[in-house]
Amino acid sequence: MTKNRRYFMILLLTLLMTLGMASLAYAAGGVVPAPEGHTPHFPNWYAIGWTAVNFFILLALLYKFAFNPINKMLEERTNTIESSLKHAEQVKVEVEEMRKEAQANLAESRKQAQEIVARATKAAEDAKNEIITKAQEEAENIRQKAYAEIQAATEKAKIELKDAAAMLALMAAEKVLERAITDEDHKNMVTKFINEAGDLMC
Amino acid sequence: MFTFGMLDGVLFHLGPIPVDHIVVTQWAIIALIGIVAFMATRNMQMVPRGLQNAFEALIVWTYDFFTQLMDKEHIAKKYAPLLSTFFLFIIVSNYSGLIPGAGQIPGYQPPTANWNTTLALALITAFTVQVAGFAEHGLHYLGHFVSPSPLMLPLNLLEEIAHPLSLFLRLFGNIFGEEMILAFMLFLAPFFVPSLLMGLSVLLAAIQAVVFTILSANYIATATGEGH
């Protein structure tokens, strides 16, 4: 579509140009005339000289407006591109360095975290063990103390019981005999009784 | 006699110096190229756009073209502006013959269809070749006239004359012939028929500009190259 339009434009322009030339020719003389003129004489040194001068004027103009500014711009562009590329290379190296550093940091951090976790785990384990040991020790202490207390109380009760029994036995014996018991009797009876009672009780 | 507007008359005098029609046409062409160049490079941007891009591409293309053609880069760098100017001047001159009115309005004709113009251009090339040879090789350049043996001196001298002569006649012959045929066709059949030939002329004008420039570059390269 675009291509066809382009060809159509070219054809149109060509026809327009032809028509333009033809109408110019008609305007000049009604019918296309053979234009007037005479063969250029040769050599026309004035024309040759003028052409050379004109050529160098054009050369100077192009130096001023084309070659110099364009060369300068090209040089500038080369420099800019070179420096841009260099800068890009530098940035790339920097990024690579930063990446490596970050990776090293990450590895270090990971290692440290692992260490911390290990240390914490170990500390917790130690604390646990310590607490258990302490608790066990304390329990043992309490048990022993209680046992000792019980022992003491038993002993005490035994002695108290012995005294009471002796007193009762004495009173009962007095009643039975209805006489005072001599120290000798007393001692014997008591001992005998206690031994019997003690055997019974224990 | 049909001369088809190939009027080589004096338009006016600048003091004692006569100014021909073709000289004025050349001025118009130079002004056109100069204005385009000025517009293109007036506000140079780092990233080229539009006219600047096109003009830069043209200059860089011609420069690259001549660098490839010549062995030595410093020679190419030195003479590329001259050759680019040849190219621009000749191609715009040739195309000026396609503008309606060229060859019909008396006095208005493409400058390159006039043998005085092409002779001037060929002479510039001839002198440039000799100057370039001396500048590159010094007096050793004279040695190439007698190489490979002094017997070749007449032939070598003839070659130095034949080169610009061929440039002069080729460009003139092609453009003049094309203009003649165009004018004659317009005279015979003003509608449609010349369009075909005009299409061909567009190609021919560009080819002649390229040929003139390439040959000039080649002569300069030969004169400055090794082996002299």
Automatic annotation (TrEMBL), chain A:
Look up the coiled coil feature and give its residue ranges: 81-156
Give the stretches traversing the membrane.
43-63
Give the membrane topology, semicolon-separated if more than one: Single-pass membrane protein
Q: Where in the cell is it found?
A: Cell membrane; Endomembrane system
Q: Which Pfam families match?
A: ATP-synt_B
Please explain the role this protein plays, according to its UniProt record: Component of the F(0) channel, it forms part of the peripheral stalk, linking F(1) to F(0). F(1)F(0) ATP synthase produces ATP from ADP in the presence of a proton or sodium gradient. F-type ATPases consist of two structural domains, F(1) containing the extramembraneous catalytic core and F(0) containing the membrane proton channel, linked together by a central stalk and a peripheral stalk. During catalysis, ATP synthesis in the catalytic domain of F(1) is coupled via a rotary mechanism of the central stalk subunits to proton translocation.
Q: What is this protein called?
A: ATP synthase subunit b
**Which gene does this sequence derive from?**
atpF
TrEMBL record, chain B:
The protein's location, in the record's own words, is: Cell membrane; Membrane
For this UniProt entry, what is the primary localization, expressed as one broad class? membrane
This protein's GO CC annotations: plasma membrane; proton-transporting ATP synthase complex
Do you know which InterPro entries this protein is assigned to? ATP_syn_F0_a_bact/chloroplast, ATP_synth_F0_asu, F0_ATP_A_sf
Q: Which SUPFAM superfamilies match?
A: F1F0 ATP synthase subunit A
| Membrane topology note | Multi-pass membrane protein
Q: Name one Pfam family in it.
A: ATP-synt_A
- Kindly list the GO molecular function terms attached to this UniProt entry: proton-transporting ATP synthase activity, rotational mechanism
Q: Where do transmembrane segments lie in this chain?
A: 20-40, 79-99, 119-146, 167-192, 198-221
Name the keywords, alphabetized: ATP synthesis, Cell membrane, CF(0), Hydrogen ion transport, Ion transport, Membrane, Transmembrane, Transmembrane helix, Transport
What GO biological process terms does the UniProt entry carry, in alphabetical order? proton motive force-driven plasma membrane ATP synthesis
Family, per entry:
Belongs to the ATPase A chain family.
What function is annotated for this protein? Key component of the proton channel; it plays a direct role in the translocation of protons across the membrane.
The identity of this protein, by name, is ATP synthase subunit a
What gene is this protein translated from?
Answer: atpB
